[in-house]
Amino acid sequence: MTNISNRTAIAGYGATEFSKNSGRSELRLAVEATLGALADAGIDPSEVDGMSTFTMDNNSEQEIHRAIGGKDLTFFTRIPQGGGGALGPLQQAAMAITTGIANVVVVYRAMNERSEYRFGQPMHSLPPTSDNVIFAYHGFSGLMTPAAMIALMMRRYMQDTGATSLDFANYAVLARKYASTNPNAFFYQKPITIEDHQGSRMIADPLRLYDCCQESDGGVALVIVSAERARDLRQKPVYIRAAAQGSPGGTVSLGGFYKDNIWPYDECAAAARQLYAQSGLSPQDLDAAILYDHFGPTVFPGLEAYGFCAKGEAKDFVKDGHLEIGGRLPINMHGGQLGEAYIHGMNGVAEAVRQLRGQAVNQVPDARNMLVTAGSGLPTTAAILGVD
Amino acid sequence: MSSAATKGHNAPCSNRDFDFFYRGLEANRLLVQRCADCGTLRSLPSPGCGACGSLDWNECELAGDGMVHSYVIHHHPPLPGFATPLPIALVDMSEGVRILGAMDETDPATITAGLRVKVEFVRRGDIAAFRFRGA
Question: Could you say which of B13, B42, B90 has the minimum Cβ distance to residue A257?
Fold first, then answer.
């Protein structure tokens, strides 16, 4: 098998501000982020020949390409599963560039998710596609929102491991602490306490308001080129050391309730196995991570599935301070999606790029290899990024 | 012709893989699929058997009793057709399959993993439905 490890690199990234109301079109956000990423890399927009995103983005590949003055788009691809697919475009880019299908691939996410839509609402009656009939079968009993679907999985996790809402509070407080020193975060200068978390209203018990990410307007884009090309560009190359998708048998999108273990875990473990095999790295080699926190408590089984602690022991790992800078595995130093913004994982990839270049506001000293994950509780994706 | 006349039920989003389940509720029967070749039961409907790949299956009526495997209490946002807070339980049925069901009309504070429950058939508007109650 051709190994994609270290054959490609993120050469640039761009982002708009994150807000509750961007005041401009989603396509404009996508174009701004894309032009920002290309300028960061020092690549002319006319060179872009590949575009990739993941579903629930409303901007078509060719429309962004048209707006930036693209010449010849030869590779366009879109990964399913919404936020579960967040790292899929990186894998697509790495495969396309390694095989010579494309040379300069833009990966993007841009939405007016807060001002033009509302996420997290009950899913309405829809055309009977293979996924929708499952959402409807569960919605028939009142299980209609992503928060409730994840809550059902996490309640069992709590039952099996002894983790409590107080344990989940430890992560929420940490995410908001990191966000409080990040000027780009919604919750800049707004840290919370354990008591604030415990006092926040129930959304889908056991998930409280402060366990949930915030609907956001904003865009992020990345530019990926070959490792060789990246070394000649203006930024330190952030190599794609591994990128994987995971969906073991029995996985259902936000409805995997019929497997032995209903935690948001198996799909992450499946991605982890591939990442470590591709990269030759192990969890001990990773200096920091961006763990997807659509709902903060999913970070706990995530830490276990990606191999940072034993199954069921994340509550102690977190309590012991290992997620802090200086700890064993600092995570989500931008404030995560609980604290910075919810750009479906792409703002986390941007944070990993900043950390690895040494440009982050909450910098992990000498971070060289980082894990970045996508939404769990559904088919998922993940990557390991690194610098020399 | 109405949806009910063609499909035998009024559930809003179904297809030919799922229609049998909603038709069963019209007759106060909680149905799952049993593979006609290997006998494996499956609750979440699918055209194929996950154990052997067979496309042939028969309806199997569950006795309706089980134990709560996990549960959620939905508080926000408001739900169409249900009062909140709404408990929803994932139940290990005595036949060995799991079924998700609402537990409206049950005090959320009384629900725990391991609670014994039984099915109760109800109508929600013009739709035949079911919920779980403490056994």
Answer: B90
